Amino acid sequence: MAGGINEKVASEAMSLEPSQILEFYLIYYAWPGDTSSVLALCPTTAGMQRGTLTADRIVWQSQEYISYPMEVSGFEVKGDNSLPRPRIKVSNINFAISKYLKVHNNLIGCKVIRKRTFARFLDDLNFPGGKNPYFDVTTQNSEASATSYLPDQTYYINRRIAETKDIVELELSTVFELDNTYLPNRNVYAKYCTWIYRGCGCLYAGAPLKSANDSDFKDSSDATVPVGAFKGKWSNLTTYSKGQWVYIETAGHDISDDDSESSVNGASIRPLRTMYVLVDSSANGNEDFPPISKKWQKDECSKKISACKLRFGKTGLRFGGFPGTHAYQPKNR
User: Fold this and answer.
1) Which has more pLDDT, 177 or 297?
2) How far apart are CA 110 and CA 90, in angstroms?
3) Which segments of 228-283 are extended strands (E)?
4) How far is it, in rounded angstroms, from Cα 227 to Cα 213?
5) To pair with 136 at 20 to 30 A between CA atoms, which of 32, 157, 184, 248?
6) Residue 22 exposure: Cα atoms within 13 Å on the Cβ side
């Protein structure tokens, strides 16, 4: 069995009638300055009918992907030891992709993660009735599994090949082909934190404080919603009330309580958690899954020093920027 592939995936791959392989692409369009802004796309798949999967969007590993017209090629591994140069061709309807190219230097150097899994392991909420139609014939249980997938592949955008009003085509390269790359590769920013919020380096574990852009949590009438009781990990079987907050775990992104990425020091390892606050009167079931429901608002950090002080106080800040590198005007003496 290949490293990184669990028994379920290996069994499905060798099955006489395997379910369809689905591909997902995470494009970190502001990389490396912003490691959280991501464009999540999955190719519109002809074989999966709208009556089988929910149209337009697919949720995988707690990440919502937009079903988008796109073609990919060149991911195959050759026997001549040459490195692959995959290409991604995406629709540019209403210049949707051109907007990213204009703002982010044609996306050159941006990180792209290719994820793959079988339809059998997709989250239940992607299907009518909130249940994956593939099930274990022995136990009669759904086989939805966020940990069953083919190994992720990481690439970087090497160049823009074409850009028209209809399509944008990009060429990818592996990490071994990056030019002008220096180690260590941590960028120095004076005003902004580079840590992933609640991840390694940050490790904030308190209650949610603000939504996007340091805004308060607000309901549809624009009234501020006080943060209430913590209800643990989100469950589609639980009915939640306004102000209560839950978390969703990100599979494949583990953090530890001692800032390391392993348990060599006996640290507790767990998946990264994203918090959500309910701003509606109530929520229940898969249709109110926090990442895709407007009833919930995500707990976010603006990555500024002021946001760090709000969470940690004025001492013991875990700010991931470098304030001392800011250009200050000298004072007259």
Assistant:
1) 297
2) 16
3) 230-233, 240-241, 245-256, 269-278, 282-283
4) 17
5) 248
6) 28
> At residue 178, what is the residue type?
L
The per-residue pLDDT for range 316-331, each reduced to its tens digit, is 888 988 888 876 666 6
How many angstroms separate the Cα of 281 from the Cα of each of 29, 98, 221, 226? 35, 39, 12, 13
Please tell me the distance from the alpha carbon of residue 51 to that of residue 27, in angstroms, as a whole number: 28
Q: What residue type is assigned to position 5 of the chain? A: I
255 to 191, 201, 258, 275: CA distances (angstroms): 25, 9, 9, 15
In whole angstroms, give the CA distance from residue 310 to residue 64. Answer: 29
Domain ranges of the chain: 7-177, 212-300
Place of tokens 């707990």: 299
pLDDT-based confidence at residue 54 (cuts at 50, 70, 90):
very low
Number of Cβ within a 10 Å radius of residue 170: 25
Predicted confidence at residue 263, as pLDDT, reads 46
**Average pLDDT over every residue of 173-195:** 75
